[in-house]
Amino acid sequence: MKVYLYGMKPKLKKTGIILLILIVVVIVITIISNLVIKNKIENALADLPDSIKVTYTDIEVSIWSGSVNLNSPKISVKGETTNKNIIQVDLKSLEVKDLGYWDYLMNDEISIDAIIVNEMVAKYQYNPKVEKESYNSNTVENLKKSINVKNIKINNSNILVSDFKTDSTLLSIPTWSFELSGFNINSKVKSKEMPFAYKSFNLNGKDLKWAMNEYENIFANSIEVTENNIHINTFELKTKYGKRELSSILEVERDHFDVEIMDLKLNAMDFGFKAEKQFYFNSDTMILNQPIAEIYRDKLVADDTTSKPLYGKMLRELNFDLSIKKVEINNGKLTYSEKVKAERQAGTLVFDDFNATLKNLGNTYGNENLTIDVTSNFMEHSPLKVDWSFNVEDESDRFVFKADLDLFEAEYINQFTKPNLNADMSGELLQTYFTIGGNPETSRIDLKVKYDNFKVNVLQDDGKEKNSFLSVLVNLFVSKDSDDEKNNFRYGQAEGVERDDTKSVFNFVWLSIKQGLLSAMTGDGEKEN
C-alpha cells in the first residue's frame, strides 16, 4: 500500500502543478487582456478631436463575455467656431455585450450582440446658421470594417433640443425609450446608397413638445412609432400666443390655431430613400379620431398678399414622394372665426359631427383623382355633404366641388353675417345643391335652391339697428320664396367667377356660392337649357 501511494503521489503532484500553472496563466492572460483592451478604449476616448470630450467613472471589460461597460459616461461636443458646448450627453451606463472578436479578426467586421444605453439625458443646441451640409459626416464612408449589432436599446431617457441663440426649446421628450434590431453599417456601400439598414425598431415617448415654427407648437401625450405604424394619443397643435398678442406681433394676417386630436394613427407605413436619396413616405391608412379645431383669423391685421396655390399644386411640388391611400376623419368639430371690425366680436362658422374620407392623398397616383367626401352639420343645425375631387398631376389644377345642404334656417348664420357682413337674415333654405367647376383663375357654379320666406335685413353701421331703406331695396330684388309651390327649386348660374389668388381656396368656393345664390334669388330662377 505504501509503495502504491508513494508511486502515485509524484504524478498527481505534477498534474496538480500543471493545472495550477494553467489556471494562473489563464487568469494572468485574462487580466492582461482586459487591461490591454481597457487601455485601448481609454486611449481611443482620449484621442478624440479636441471638440469632443468623454469622461466616465470606470470602464469594466470582460474578454470572455465580450462585454464592455462604461459607468456614468458623459459626452460633450463643442462647436468648431463658437467653442461652446452644443451637445451634452449624460448616461447612467453604456453596455456593449458579446463583442465578436473572431468576426473582428477573420471576417473584417465588428459584430455585437447588444448595445444598451441606460438613463440617457441628451441636450443639443441647434444653430440654424450652420449650413445643413456641415452636419453631413464622412464617418461611414471612411469605415474600414462593417458593423453588425443585433439589438440596440435606449432605456428611460430624456432629450432636449434648444435654440443655440435664444435657448428656447425646439424639441423636448422627457421620457422615451428606443429599441432597434438587426442594425448594420456596410463599409463597402456606394456613396449614393443608404449606408445602413435595420430589421425593426420601436420608439415610445411621453409628453412630447415640438416647436414647429416661430408661431406654433406641437404636443403629444404619448407616441409610439414602429417601422410600420405610428400611434399618437392626444395630439395638439397650438399657437404659442394668445389671439390679441398674436395680432400685435404679426406684420400680415395669420391664423390662430387651437387643434386637438384625441387619437392619431398611421398604419402600414413604408418610408426611406430611393435613388439619388429621394425621400418617400407611404401609408395605407391615416386615422384622426375626434379632432377639434378652432381657427381664428384677425382681418384687422394687414392682408397677406402672397399668391396661394391650390392644393393640387402644393402636393405636386412637394420635395418628397407622398402616398397615403386613405385618410379617415371621425367625429370631429371645426370652428372658424373671423374678426372684421374692431368694435364687434368675431363672426363664427361651425361644422360639427364632422366626418371625412380622403383617398389617394399624395403626389404619386398618376391619373387617379384625389377625392374628398365630407358629411357634417353646418352651424350645428343643417346636414351638409361635400364631394371634392381633383387630379394632382394635372398642371391645369382643375377641380370639381359639389355640396348638398339640407334644411337650414337662415338665422343660424347670423352669428357670422351680422358682425362680418352687416346683414341679418331670416327664413329657411329648404334644400340647396351646387356644383362648382374651377381652375386657379376662374370657376363656374350651377346651383338650385328651395327656400321659404327668405329676407335680408341690412344693418346700420353700428350693427344693431336695421337700415330700413337699404333692407327694403335689397329685398325688392330677392324672391321671398322659391315658388308658390314649395316643392320647386329656383336655379342660379354664374360663369367666370374670378379668384383672388391671395386668398385661400375656400374663399374662392364662397365667392362662387355667393354668385350662384344671387343668380337664383334675384334672377328669373329658371334652369338653363
Mean pLDDT: 83
What number of structural domains do the residues give? 4
* Extended strand count: 26
Output the structural class: alpha+beta
Molecular shape = elongated
Q: Given the structure, what is the number of helices?
A: 7
Main sheet summary: 26 strands, mixed
Measured between the Cα atoms of the first and last residue, the distance is: 131 Å
Question: Can you characterise this structure?
Answer:
The protein has 529 residues and is α+β, with helices and mostly antiparallel strands. It folds into 4 domains: 1-47; 51-200, no CATH class; 212-396, no CATH class; 398-529, no CATH class. The protein is built from 7 helices and 26 strands. The chain has helices spanning 2-46, 101-106, 243-249, 311-316, 414-421, 468-477, 505-522; strands at residues 52-55, 58-62, 67-71, 74-78, 85-90, 93-100, 109-118, 121-126, 146-163, 169-185, 196-197, 200-211, 216-226, 230-239, 256-267, 270-273, 279-298, 321-339, 347-362, 370-378, 382-390, 399-405, 408-409, 423-438, 442-458, 490-498. The protein has a 26-stranded mixed β-sheet that branches. The longest helix has 45 residues, at 2-46. It starts with a helix and ends in a 7-residue tail after the last helix. The model is unreliable at 1-6, 133-140 and 469-474 (pLDDT under 50).
